[in-house]
Amino acid sequence: MKARVFITLKPGVLDPQGKAIHHALDGLGFGGVNDVRAGKLIELDLADGTSDGEIEEMCRKLLANTVIENFRIERLETAA
Amino acid sequence: MKTAVIVFPGSNCDRDIAVALEQVTGRKPAMVWHRDAELPDGTDFIALPGGFSYGDYLRSGAMAARSPIMRAVTEAAARGVPVIGICNGFQVLTEAGLLPGALMRNAGLSFVCRPVPLKVENSQSLFTAQYDAGETVTFPVAHHDGNYQADDATLDRIEGEGRVAFRYLDEVNGSARRIAGILNDSGNVLGLMPHPERVVEAAHGGTDGRRLFEGLLETVA
To answer: What domains are defined for chain A?
Structure first.
C-alpha cells in the first residue's frame, strides 16, 4: 500500500520560501495571487497492514517537525 | 576537562571546535562518530559542531538528531553534562528536543556569512560566566537556516527564565526577538547559530569566543 504525507507550515509561521515564490509569480505578471505557502510531499511505499497509528508516529517522530509544521496523511488505494 | 566532539557525515566545523577545545583545555577532544552508541567514559563536555549533517536532508539537523549517538548525548545532558551545539549543532539540539523551538530558512532566503555583533543576555550560565551581562561580542555566522522560531508562549517563557544567552544586535536572519542562542531549562545545554570557536585567537580576527570555552573549563574542570 502507498500513502502520501503532506507537510505544511503551521498557520502563522512565516514562510520565506512561499513569500519568494509569491514575489516571483508577481514578477511574471500573475496578478491575483493572494498568498503562497510552500510545503513537502513525502510518498511512502508501505507493507500491507501498516496502521494509521504507525504512519502518524512516523510523522511525529521524523517526517514533520510539529513545532512548526502540520501533517496530513492520505492513504492511496492499491490497485488489485 | 575531557571533551567530546560529535562528528556527523557532513559536519564541517568539527575540526574548528576541536582546535579551539585543545587550545583552551590543553587536551585533544575525543572525536565521536555519529554511529557510535556511547561517549567515552568520563566525558564532561560535549560539542555538536557546525556543518551540513546529512546534507540538510528533510530539515537541517533532522537526520542527525535521530542518529545513534544522540541517545547517549541526551542521557548525558539529563545528567547535567554541559552540551554546546553551534550552528548545525543548534539545529540538531532543537530537532532532538533538547532545546525548544526550530531553526527555519533565513527570512531573507540568502546564506548569511559575516561577523555579527551579539549582546550577552545571560552572563550567569556555565557558558557565559566570563562575559558581562549586556556586553557586546562579535562572533561570525555562516548559515542558511538560522531563523529561530517558537510560539509566543515558549518565547515568553525562555525570555522570562533568562534562557536567551545571546541576541543579535541587528537584524540577521529573521529570528524571533533576534534570538541568537538559548539555554535549556537546567542551563547545561546551549545552542547558538554564531560560531564562538572561530574567534579564539588573534589570527582569527577576534578572540571574543575564547572566554566561552575558558569559562567552561573553569566551571567544569
So the answer is: 2-76 (3.30.1280.10)
Q: Which domain holds residue B24?
A: 3-220
Global pTM reads: 0.94
Domains identified in chain B, total number: 1
Phi, psi at residue B13, to the nearest 5°? -115, 15
Question: Is B149 in contact with A20 (Cβ distance < 8 A)?
Answer: no
Identify the residue among B66, B70, B91, B105 best suited for mutation to test binding to A, counting A beta carbons within 10 A and taking the highest. B105
CATH label of the domain that carries residue B64: 3.40.50.880
CA pair distance B7, B5, nearest whole angstrom: 6
Taking the CB of residue A2, how many other CB atoms lie within 10 A of it? 12
Judged by a CB distance cut-off of 8 A, whether residue A59 touches chain B is no
Q: pLDDT tens digit string along B46-84?
A: 999 999 999 999 999 999 999 999 999 999 999 999 999
Q: How far is CA B136 from CA B123, B143, B214, in A?
A: 12, 21, 18
Q: What is the pLDDT of residues B152-198, one digit of tens each?
A: 999 999 999 999 999 999 999 999 999 999 999 999 999 999 999 99
